[in-house]
Amino acid sequence: MLNLQTDEAHTLIPSPQTAQEHYVTALAEALELLISEDQEKYTEYEDRFEKRLDRKTKLNSPEDIFLQAEIRMQWAFVYFKFGHEFDAALNLRQAYLTSEEIKKRFPRFQAILKTSAVLEIIIGSVPEKYDWVLSLLNIQGSVENGLSDLDKIRTSENPLNMESDLLYALIQGFVLQQHDQSIRVMDNIIASHPKNKLGLFLGSALSIKNAQSEKALALLHRLDEQQTGLPVYYADYLKGEVYLHKAEYLNAVSAYRSFINHYKGQNHIKDAHYKIGLCYWLNGNANDAQAVFKVARNSGRETMEADRYAARSLAEAEMPHPTLTRARYFTDGGYYEKASQILDSISPGEIPTTRDQVEYYYRKARLAHKTNKLADAKTLYTKTIELNGPLAWYFAPNASLQLGYILLGESDTVMAREYFQRSLSYKKHEYKNSIDAKAKSALAQLDRK
Questions:
Q1: Best CA proximity match to 95, nearest among 74, 64, 121
Q2: What CA–CA distances, in Å, run from 270 to 242, 292, 302?
């Protein structure tokens, strides 16, 4: 199942009876929905989920109660992915309460540590806009407790250790911004399981997040070589991202189109269309760009931040500054020399709009930060914040977040806290959810120091 051979898993367990068998088949179904967003299977698998909740058992064993907590957490993710946020919140709460019950009744039952750890970290990192949900549901999370529990089970002999290892790498990379740590863990997983599709897929996503696009592309090619198991069409979207970073625009267009043509979901569809148009724009083909942008405005949905950013960009009258955009993607992909050459070729006086002027300093700050020129990065982030002011762009909130990380690394916890809190203070920008989650996680780490 963890190799995404979901059909084979169902063949091996055609009629699950035990809690362990239900756990495997339920996770196979949840993974399939999260990766494919197949609406037709969603209805079928939701029926199975509800039947598992109604299993006729007195729920006296920790395994049976654990299953209830796990499947509710799995479906909290699924419901959120399919846009059912209320159902997601209710199942998240029930999973949390059930995991707490197991920890009290069966303190030696180790498997629940994986479930409770993920719940603690997620709840402890919920963006500000969802705080009312946590208050309503009367649940609280702790990133510190979650990491501690997850570390215990991933380093144990428990059968859930590999799954816990994967979750640990994802949390370190996407929630806590500890990219080096996440890559180390994922590299070890892939070294131990070199043909594992889930490991290769998640490893490529983490590599892109860590500005290692060449490494991501190598992992995606290895993923292509694995012919069995669930097709991972989202991998084509990731290839599009890498080729966009490399300025190989026609290859990027081909990859994004393959994703759009095969993917059964709606998330990232708007962003993929937008980036196809952007590739044409950056490649000097304005007419094709405008034609694709017109399609993009009416495609997909706007649940994911990438799609919301695309929608906001498509609504603006001005096209993105081509030179700054190239610099952005070179930096995102880890092509720092090319990014530096581009940024050095322009001066602030050549940039016409206030937004582009803010972005100019932000791009220089990001490049300085990525190349470990921290003194320059701090100066440029500060300049970004000053120029951005209260305007609803993501440059200032993320500059504040990144300044917090730098200051935290310098052991200036007082100023780090101030900048993390400043990051949370900005309203209604494109990446509000993810930046808030990162800032809250950083503040939680500070609280335990």
A1: 74
A2: 18, 10, 8
Q: Which two tokens stand for residue 402?
A: 């990144």
How many angstroms from the chain centroid is the CA of residue 194? 23
Helices (H), 298-373: 305-315, 322-333, 336-344, 354-370
Query: Residues 362, 399: contact at Cβ < 8 Å?
Result: yes
Q: What is the pLDDT of residue 431?
A: 84
Rg of the chain, C-alpha, whole Å? 22
Return the residue matching tokens 């479906």.
75
Helix (H, G, I), strand (E, B) or coil at 44: helix
**Among 93, 84, 14, CA closest to 46:** 84
Within 10 Å of residue 280's Cβ, how many Cβ atoms?
A: 21
The vertex-237 CA angle with 88 and 394, nearest 5°, equals 65
- Among residues 313, 304, 308, 306, which one has the least CA distance to residue 278? 313
Contacts of 126 (CB under 8 A, 6+ apart): 133, 134, 141, 437, 440
Q: pTM of the predicted model, to two decimals?
A: 0.90
The pLDDT value recorded for residue 30 is: 97
361 contacts 396 by C-beta, under 8 angstroms: no
Closest to 161 in 3D by CA, of 150, 172, 169, 171 = 150
Residue 46 is predicted with a pLDDT of 97
* Per-block mean pLDDT, blocks of 10 residues, the chain (449 long): 94 94 96 94 96 76 94 95 90 92 93 92 68 61 82 92 94 86 96 96 96 98 94 97 98 98 95 97 95 96 90 88 94 97 87 91 96 97 96 94 95 95 90 86 74
Q: For residues 197 and 83, what is the distance between their CA atoms, to the nearest angstrom? A: 26
Residues 83 and 96: their CA atoms lie apart, in Å, by 21
Amino acid identity of residue 232, one-letter, is V
Residue in 367, 240, 303, 275 with CA at minimum distance from that of residue 81: 303
Q: 390: which DSSP letter?
A: T
Cα separation of 287 and 368, whole Å? 35
- From residue 99, how far is each of 71, 139, 147, 347 by CA, in Å? 11, 12, 16, 56
Spatial CA neighbour of 442 closest among 209, 182, 177: 177
Query: Can you read off the two tokens belonging to residue 156?
Result: 């144990």
Please answer whether residues 403 and 440 qualify as being in contact, where contact means their C-beta atoms are separated by less than 8 angstroms.
no
d(C-alpha 378, C-alpha 408), whole Å: 12
Give the other-Cβ count within 10 Å of 316's Cβ.
9
Residue with tokens 């267009």: 253
Burial, 250: exposed, middle or buried (Cβ in 10 Å; 0-12, 13-18, 19+)? exposed
